[in-house]
Design a protein that fits this description.
single chain, Rossmann fold, eight-stranded mixed sheet, binds S-adenosylmethionine, transferase, EC 2.1.-.-
Length: 254
């Protein structure tokens, strides 16, 4: 089986962590050093910008049914959204079109080269409601309490500082805001992705619940990925129980 993931060239991400002394309002943020593992999961290396063409390969929609995931985001005109770990913008551009000129997309990545490639693609399609944002490995540099929907596709498992990132993400959400998380299914051996770049539902639940999130929606019909929506644990949105992965695989006839 091929493991389709251009991961052999890890990104150079030896960036400084956020200078805490320069920030007045980050009380409560976990003091976290660069990790090799988190709650029993071994962390992956960020994908280098050298592999960016793979992210916009023509067959991606057929393989992952990205169009269906996109519909599930239920984006509306005027929303303020974020594509965190945006890469060269496979998701950012359609998000920008969906929220329209009254809306805004924060496009965050830790590699300037990815943001440059995104900028070139946005210019080609004359899209102007994208705010490219150079994040840090422990801080996406987002405004507080402003985001309606924050999307992370195939990126969360790469965070070297997952607790710090989740703390900042939680703080960026409006009370009704949600995180849409797409990760390749670890439970399915037929998903042709390297094991470190997959996550199980149980592990996702463990990490998100430990960091102040609750599951509020899920979509279990994608060919390769989990799509799970989380809200702040103090959100008015109602918590749901995830359908176990073995039941999902059975219903997909895998
Ligand atoms: C596998 S790519 C996915 C890109 C995009 N989401 C997509 O689906 O096409 C992961 C991206 O996440 C970025 N990334 C990794 N850690 C990050 C962090 N802490 N903050 C922001 N971006 C990060 C990497 O630089 C890389 O561009």
């Amino acid at each position: 089986m091929t493991h389709a993931y251009p991961q052999d060239v890890p990104a150079e991400t030896d960036q400084p962590q956020t200078d805490r002394s320069a920030q007045a309002n980050d009380a409560g943020k976990p003091k976290e050093s660069k990790r090799k593992s988190y709650l029993g999961r071994v962390l992956a290396q960020p994908m280098s910008h050298v592999g960016a063409p793979w992210l916009i390969r023509p067959e991606r929609d057929d393989e992952e049914n990205a169009s269906e995931s996109f519909k599930m985001l239920e984006l509306k005109t005027g929303m303020v959204v974020c594509d965190l770990g945006c890469g060269n913008g496979y998701w950012t551009l359609p998000m920008a079109r969906a929220v329209g000129e009254e809306g805004l997309v924060y496009a965050v990545d830790i590699q300037q080269e990815m943001l440059q490639k995104l900028g070139q693609r946005a210019a080609r399609f004359k899209i102007e409601n994208i705010r490219p944002t150079l994040g840090q490995i422990d801080d996406p540099k987002l405004p507080q309490n402003e985001i309606d929907l924050l999307l992370m596709v195939d990126v969360y498992h790469e965070f070297s500082h997952p607790q710090s990132m989740l703390w900042e993400i939680r703080r960026s959400l409006k009370p009704n805001g949600t995180v849409a998380l797409l990760e390749y299914r670890e439970e399915d051996p037929n998903v042709p992705i390297k094991p470190l770049h997959k996550m199980s539902k149980i592990q996702i639940m463990k990490e998100y619940e430990a960091n102040g999130f609750k599951l509020v929606k899920e979509y279990n019909e994608l060919p390769w990925q989990h799509l799970m929506f989380f809200a702040r644990d103090d959100s008015p949105l109602k918590a749901i129980t995830p359908i176990p992965a073995n039941e999902v695989l059975q219903s997909l006839d895998k």
